[in-house]
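Table S2 (text version). Query chain:
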Amino acid sequence: MDVALLTAFATPFMAILAMLWHQQRAILRKVGENGERLSRIEGFLGIGMPPAAASNAPGADLARRPPEDSDKN
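Corresponding structure-token output:
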């Protein structure tokens, strides 16, 4: 094979690989950001985590009473 022919095939092939690699990295980065966002939302709502972890979360009060009982104090 001629070197010019080899470069003619290799250059577009390498460009396509570079584009695919870049897109894959961008997608993985976005998925990671969405996962972090989802875990923050779940943590705020107190869902998506085991009860032991939820009880240790800031502001968690698992010993809450119904609203009608809180007026008796």
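Notes on Table S2: The longest helix spans residues 3-45. DSSP finds three helices and no strands in the chain.
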